[in-house]
Amino acid sequence: MVYVKVMEGDFLLTVDKLFFDVKGHLHPPDRIISFIRYYPNKKGTRIINNERYTKVYDLKKRFKFLEKKYPIYIYYDEVFHSKMQGVPIDMINKIYYPREKIKELITKSSKLKIEDDVLSLIQSLAENSGQAIDDFGITGSILINLFTDESDIDVIVYGFKTAIKVYETLKNLIHEKKEFKPCNKKELYKIYLNRRMNETLSFKDFCNNEKNKVLQGKFHERSYFIRCVKNWNEIKETYGDKVYYPMGLSKIEAVIINDEEKILTPCKYEVSNVKVLFGKKESIKEVVSFRGRFCEAASVGDKIIARGKLEKVVDKSNGEFYRLVLGESNKDFLIVKERG
Questions:
Q1: pLDDT of 2 above 70
Q2: Which of 219, 75, 249 is nearest to 152 (CA)?
Q3: Total domains in the fold of the chain
């Protein structure tokens, strides 16, 4: 079997001409955990190689589409004990790497406006933070050439130390309000509706949690989203080192005691003083998410309320513990009840 090394931000093109975005860095030997993002559709508005494509974003719709049209990409994972989406290794036609996209655009003689914008954003962050261009990547629709004139800019930052420097730089640049700006109330309301958070949270609560985030915002009036991921040499866990068991839905109140990985994807918040408001009464150690929307959600000392999937984690080296996983449902949330 061919060994394939991919991580968060990479894209896969399958033999069926489907585009999947890779999730995380833990994958079974025979397939890559990834989620359908674009599929061929004669009515689609995105075009590549004379083929029209449609984007599917909502998680439930992604599963429904694959179950109906391409069930081979749905499987039961024995490590995560969940129904997952994933591309079998022998059905991968091409892998798209975010770092390679930057190299391609730098050498491209004639660039479109959005390509100029994404390069300018990365060059600005690299120069102001003192980091190398190689520490960045371009993902999303730009990576696979399925963007539109209105597409967002999706950027990857590689390496924990680099991410911290870029994050601090971004906070300063947004404070200056020149090239980078935070999302305004109108833009946040659009995000609120797109994520269907109106089914779960008031806009006031959503806005209070999102308004100070800097990994999402505007660059020269174009929306951007930045994901920070660990480099391969920083990732210690391998697939199967830990086994995960879903334990139902849970809603908790807790205090954040460690937020070191709040800017990473996946993000993690260690918690204490946990009060279970709904679900099994287990001692929850951490709140995690594989979705970028939960980054920057809280800081040390904050009292939070969160809703997600309770999971028992069995670590083959260090026993077992419980965690709350956010993002598998549109009704999952994390809000700060009191600032620390």
A1: no
A2: 219
A3: 3
DSSP line for 110-139:
S--HHHHHHHHHHHHHHHHHT--GGGEEEE
Handedness of CA 172, 135, 37, 42 (dihedral sign): positive
Asked whether residue 2 is assigned to any structural domain, the reply reads no
Q: What DSSP designation does 296 have? A: T
Q: Within 13 A of 1's CA, how many CA atoms are on the CB side?
A: 12
Euclidean distance between CA atoms 187 and 258, whole angstroms: 30
Structure tokens at 261: 């990985």
CA distance 278 to 253: 10
Do residues 116 and 212 share a domain?
A: yes
Do 213 and 134 share a domain, yes or no?
yes
Same domain, 226 and 311: no
Residues 92 and 102 in one domain: no
- At 1 the pLDDT is 56
- What is the Cα–Cα distance from 40 to 38, expressed in whole angstroms? 7
DSSP state, residue 237: -
**Total-model pTM:** 0.94
Identify whether residues 38 and 114 lie together within a single domain. no
Place of tokens 């008031």: 202
Range of the domain at 302: 241-338
Domain end among 205, 232, 259: 232
Here the tokens at position 19 are: 């585009």
Minimal CA–CA distance to 45: which of 148, 142, 115, 153? 148
**CB-based contacts of 142: which residues, under 8 Å, 6+ apart?**
101, 114, 115, 118, 151, 153, 154
> How high is the pLDDT of residue 42?
95
